[in-house]
Design brief:
- The protein is α+β, with helices and mostly antiparallel strands and 81 residues long.
- 35% of the residues lie in helices and 22% in strands.
- It has helices at residues 10-14, 17-30, 69-77, and strands spanning 2-7, 37-42, 54-56, 59-61.
- It has a four-stranded mixed sheet, with helices on one face.
- A hairpin with a 2-residue loop joins strand 3 and strand 4 (59-61).
- The longest helix has 14 residues, at 17-30.
Length: 81
C-alpha cells in the first residue's frame, strides 16, 4: 500500500489542507483505491511557503489547493498506483 502525507501544519491549514484532504478522500473512493492508497496527516513537511504540501512515495507536490487537488491526484498520484 502506498501512502500520501498531507501537511496539516499551520501554514497548510490556513491555505486549505482540509479541502485538499476531502477531495483526495473522495477521489480514492471514486477510483476504488482504498486497498492501494492511504492518506495520512503530517504535522509539517518543511514547505510552509509553498503550502499545501503533499508528500508521496517519490517526492513532494507543493501548492495544492481546492482548485488543483483533483488534477494533482489524477496526474501525479493515480498513474503510479
Amino acid at each position: 500500500m502506498k501512502v500520501v502525507y498531507i501537511c496539516i501544519g499551520s501554514a497548510c491549514h490556513l491555505k486549505g489542507t482540509h479541502q485538499v484532504i476531502e477531495i483526495f478522500k473522495k477521489l480514492i473512493e471514486t477510483y476504488h483505491l482504498e486497498d492501494r492508497l492511504e492518506l495520512k496527516a503530517a504535522f509539517c513537511t518543511g514547505h510552509c511557503t509553498e503550502a499545501v504540501a503533499v508528500q508521496k512515495w517519490d517526492g513532494s507536490i507543493l501548492s495544492a489547493n481546492k482548485e488543483n487537488a483533483e488534477a494533482i491526484f489524477i496526474s501525479e498520484i493515480l498513474p503510479d498506483l
